[in-house]
């Protein structure tokens, strides 16, 4: 059957699936995924690969659940938590999400600033507020579709990491072995902290919270449940594949250069430079800048979504700022505040890895009430979760939380 005979609704869903997969490919990799994958590959080669796999599987389940919840209930996750548990309970996930998102957004602004430093030689603290201002201008003037799809299309340059991983010809048997959980051969405290950071980067709450809000912005209903499954499964799987490619490239390149600990962001481009030379440097700068700028926009929006939805304000990126002033004020303040640590000279790499571990620590505060909502027939009816979905998400989040409890104090105290 040719395209012109397909009903418009079917064509729209196919387009949504294609763009959703592109969003997963171009939008999954950002400063958190990149930094944690590079550090894991350099220090432990392919061994932490299982953490990326586990985190991606959990994210597939959570994003599918988020889209299903919004399409069926016509609520976002924040709406549902406030409505189901009350405003007082909602303050717990609100505080956790806002604080963790602020740190993660600082890391993303730092990622763009580092890319600009590499391109111009001007130190990254000088770029923090200009980057935040540019992000604010885009948010102020653009629609949700432009932000979501435009930044993801630019982020497709991150596929260069996949090309690098293939051209480096790793030992694929060792790569496969790394997808099976195993105890570390050395430096166990640092290994488990790295695993926590990778899990936190993969299952950042902002990802599925943003996805839920996006479903409402795009007016999804029950007719989009099939498209939602395809977008969540294919998009997040492809995005996780890019993160795994970064780890593979780092595992091959850095040990070969005698580097087993990446503690300087200036070392990061080596993952592509070792394969593509000068153009690898250019590709790395473009990948870092586009991916982190897209993540900055999405994080700022998620801050505004979560606060506005939780307190019942008007919200929506497709509305004019004067129609939802509280929503616009939140992302304005979020960007300004998140730029401060980078402008003050904070190391973006260290900030990123720590914020990813903190993200894993805070997961239960949003995931647990979300699981309750997904099993409440008054919201999702017959589309509620099955036992398998509940078990998978609960097990992975519990693992992340327990590991974070064990390893975060060690890192804060300086013991690695």
Automatic annotation (TrEMBL):
- What organism is listed for this UniProt entry? Paraburkholderia graminis (strain ATCC 700544 / DSM 17151 / LMG 18924 / NCIMB 13744 / C4D1M)
Q: Mind telling me what this protein is named?
A: Uncharacterized protein
Q: Which keywords, in A-to-Z order, does the entry hold?
A: Membrane, Symport, Transmembrane, Transmembrane helix, Transport
Compartments where found: Membrane
Q: Which GO terms describe its molecular function?
A: cadmium ion transmembrane transporter activity; manganese ion transmembrane transporter activity; symporter activity
Where does this protein chiefly localize?
membrane
How does the protein associate with the membrane?
Multi-pass membrane protein
Q: Name one Pfam family in it.
A: Nramp
Coiled-coil blocks? none
Supply the InterPro entries for this chain.
NRAMP_fam
- Judging by the UniProt lineage, the source's domain of life is Bacteria
**GO biological process per UniProt:** iron ion transmembrane transport
Q: Transmembrane segments in this chain: where? A: 14-38, 50-69, 89-107, 127-144, 151-169, 189-211, 231-256, 268-293, 327-346, 352-375, 387-412
